[in-house]
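W.,

You were right to be curious about this one. When I first looked at the sequence I had no strong expectations either way, so I just let the prediction run and decided to look at it fresh. Below is the sequence, 448 residues in total, followed by the output.
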Amino acid sequence: MKAFEFEHHVIKTYERFSRSFTQIKADDLKSEIDAQYDEGRFWPDALLSLNPRFLSGPDVDELVASGNLDEGTGKVFRFGETPLRFHRHQAEAIAKAKSGSSYVVTTGTGSGKSLCFFVPVVDSILGALRAGKPRKTRAIIIYPMNALANSQLKEIDKFIGQSGLPENLKSVVKRYTGQESQEERKKIAANPPDILLTNYMMAELLLTRQDELDAQVVANAGGLEFIILDELHTYRGRQGADVAVLVRRIRDRCAPDKAPVCIGTSATMASEGTEESRALAVAKVATRLFGSDIGPDAVIDESLQRATDDNIKLEQVKGQLASVIGQPLPEKLDDGTLKKHPLSVWTELALGLDDGLELKRKKPIPFGEAVKLLSDHSGADEEPCRETLEAFLTRVSLHDRCADGFERARCVIGIRPERGGSFENGKSGLYQNRVRAQILSFGGKRLP
């Protein structure tokens, strides 16, 4: 998808819709309203953020060879013949879970947080099934929204389905969110899944509703090994208190004899202060939510690296920007070219990363501000800078077919309304939203 074209289409479509209700005959009034539409008063500028390249860790085959993962886990988490290579933070999370420790993963969007819990959970289930233990629900994953549960159910089912494992060793994942028919609920109660995906409201109903099917689903989770809260930052205030009580009820009902491994994931929980103070703040929140002691050392943050040439600094490319503004991009735009291309380096260092003692991602920036920054650094006018930046980001977001048979995007751009906008609360006014044009990865992301 060409994200910027889609954004322009959405804005123009909504502008036509919002202007269709009135016909203004007074020339002076019509001129003023037209000017305000042209200035974009009714919809804030798109936000642009760049998810950087993460430091690599071992691949799944290496963890299998070292004895840290079951052989079957290596068959699940791969793309065809190619083993999945983990980011460093994913490998740290797997190690934490294998040691029986609870932890929180606070890495950014597109960092693969779901693998931080699915890999150790599937591995634990495989070990239990190989040992001849009966199937039961060993992990409950609680999502704030059904859409997240639906999406992750599809993704984990893809991995498990292509593994080639015999049926008696395949992890069974089921959803119990209130969307299921009575027949589906009966099947889940009669044949306990290894992993149950739910939301906090349904989890509450499972524990409190006087229903035989619900009671059986809860009974199937006796000896629960994992409690996972996705999008941990959404549980705040009264809702946070409700979820904290819910987690304690689940522990009392399903794991009274042995504390389960508690895992939380969140992209945004604490963004101010030093790394140590942020980890301490996250650990305090997680401890209160889970009712389990989670220290700062159990907070896993992202580790980043440059996707472009480490030897090229931002000041070095500023003088080269004028020569590429308004010019067509090279016909060949492979990884080698991108590592040194002035726009690539500028985009990563000016928009994506704070290149200090440690690499940290920058906060999202309105696209208009990014254009103005490019204009200031290049000396070119803003309009050609806008066109060039849009063309560059669109070009590098398109997939290339690689020699290994997979499509790889240099960066992946997505557009979405900002959280708190009216798309999420059910209203219909686009002017109340911030549309985010977001680079979900930069420097190469392998897609299945």
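Here's what jumped out at me. The two ends are 16 Å apart (CA to CA). And, maybe more interesting for your project: Residues 401-448 have pLDDT under 50 and may be disordered.

Coffee later to discuss?

I.
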